[in-house]
Amino acid sequence: MNEPRRRGPVARLLGGIWDAMNFTRRLVFNLLFFALLLFVLAVLAAGDTTRPMLDRTTLVIAPEGRIVEQYTTDPASRALARMLGDDSAPEVQLRDLLRAIEAAAADENVERVYLRVDRLQPSGIAILREVAGALRDLRAGGKQIVAYGESFSQGAYLLAAQADEIYIDPMGSGVGLEGFASYGPYFGEALQDKLGVDVHVFKVGEFKSAVEPYVLNAASPEAKQADLYWLNDLWQRHLADIAEARGLSVEQLEAGIDGMADGVAALGGDLARYALEQGLVDGLKTSREVEDLLVERGVADEDAEAGFRSVDLDGYLAHVDGGLPRTPRERQVAVVVAEGAISDGIQPPGSVGGESTAALLREALEDEHVKAVVLRVNSPGGSAYASEQINREVVALKAAGKPVVASMGHVAASGGYWISMNADRIFADPSTITGSIGVFGLFPNITRTLDRIGVHTDGVGTTRLAGAFDITRPLEPDVGRLIQASIEKIYNDFVDKVAAGRGARPAAIDRVARGRVWSGAQARDRGLVDELGGFRAAIADAARRAELGEGDYRVRYIEKEASPFAKFMADLAGTRAGAVLLRDAGLAQLLLARTVPELERHVRVFEQALANDRGVAARGMAYCFCPVF
């Protein structure tokens, strides 16, 4: 067998020089190509897609999906999703809706608002009341509002009711006023009898009902009593808001709901006509007929899709942001958003992490330009430990002389109340869901499940507690007492901290705690909330506490910043040329597929808790199964 011929030293030297030159050539050409690509993309991203605002413009507000306090995806993912027509999980920020409506009220170029809320998903009555208040102020300022929808859910209708005129499609399903409810599945029989899973419950508070679906077949009398109490309060306020906006009485609305079956039957099943007869809408029109009406009242524009001079929400916000005056950097009211379930560690936007949210508050503490903080809470709670991590940062801010005002959104219950309780002032909407001061723990055991398939657990341990928290072994009574003692300790700490923060006795707090849920108005009457008001009122109060004059400060959201690449892609996707470039690009679709998260679910909270990855004996949960209407 012949061995390969070895090259001489001169040949090796020449070969090395050639390889080096070849590498250099490829490197230079790649760098030049990359530089050229960046230049082209930068030119595309620099293109201005906003058209100049003309007089007599109609502002089109058509939010789709959920109204959220904070986006759950990064800017690039949202821009790419819009560009690719992906509307699987749309979101609109409450702050954007409010500032657009407030700006339109003072904008001479905005003649009216065209409101489309029929594609709005349940977002929480307190959130909707905030938007409804802004629309009411806009209308009171002389701007006309025209609302249209194929049909309206009872939540979206609260917004539509603020309009001067409301129209629905003749073939639509009318207005879905039906009442508020809190129903859900109960798995007691399925888990215990069918699957052989024993769920051990440890809790404090007879009204702490979040664990009931796992051990009962129906809601307990205490849960039904408590839920109906606050649900009725929210429902009566909802009816009153609608009645006032439409010039009706609550009795008329209630009669229309009770008599809906007979009334609709008498009209041959015409739900739209029934809504018209009940005074809920002003007319039956198709979308084209409403657009023709807006052409007549406004300015015709052949280039506009709807035929009239208009600007959508995103386009208008671009104008608003471009015209904002510069305010001194050294005077800021910082806003930290705590939205979603509270979990341990670092969590992405749209959820609350003990470490990540605490870090945002710490940033506000360390920034000398921040003079006050508003903690905007929209959370049903979760991990008790993570809640306390956040609470400690609130206390630290106050100790440093920076006022902290808690602003409760749709829900600030259980752990959501925990992180709010030490604020200098707690604001809540009357329809906020709050309270639920209680703690529970769950320990599932699958011994009987394994027995059914012939699988058994056996072995040895060095102590009585060794292996005691293995879900394949029966739960020892001593271990159960250990967990219950831990849960009671967390509850007592919770009550004591609330009492200290609220300036009350622990016994007084315990009487309104016990896991019971309250509306914002009920919580105010029981000393758990200081004042009824929305986000704007909380901002004003925080500024006043920091002795900042009106217009003498700016509101700054402290959030995890997007990466430079994400910002660049968002800017690029927002341009017409960039949209054309990326619409069919595999890169855009790949980025979108990788970054759009799944919707937050209740079960995720328990999955993280049950994972028990830190080897702890039990993890206390301060969580509320609060519904969204």
From TrEMBL:
Chain ranges of the Peptidase S49 domain = 139-291, 397-548
Q: Its principal location?
A: membrane
Location of the protein in the cell:
Membrane
Keywords attached to this Swiss-Prot or TrEMBL record, sorted alphabetically, are: Hydrolase, Membrane, Protease, Serine protease
Sorted alphabetically, which Pfam families does this protein's record hold? Peptidase_S49
Q: Does the keyword Hydrolase apply?
A: yes
Kindly give the NCBIfam families that the UniProt entry links to this protein.
SppA_67K, SppA_dom
Family stated for the protein in its record: Belongs to the peptidase S49 family.
Concerning PANTHER family, the annotation shows:
PEPTIDASE S49 DOMAIN-CONTAINING PROTEIN (PTHR33209:SF1), PROTEASE 4 (PTHR33209)
This chain's protein is named Signal peptide peptidase SppA
Q: Which organism is it from?
A: Luteimonas endophytica
Q: Which gene encodes it?
A: sppA
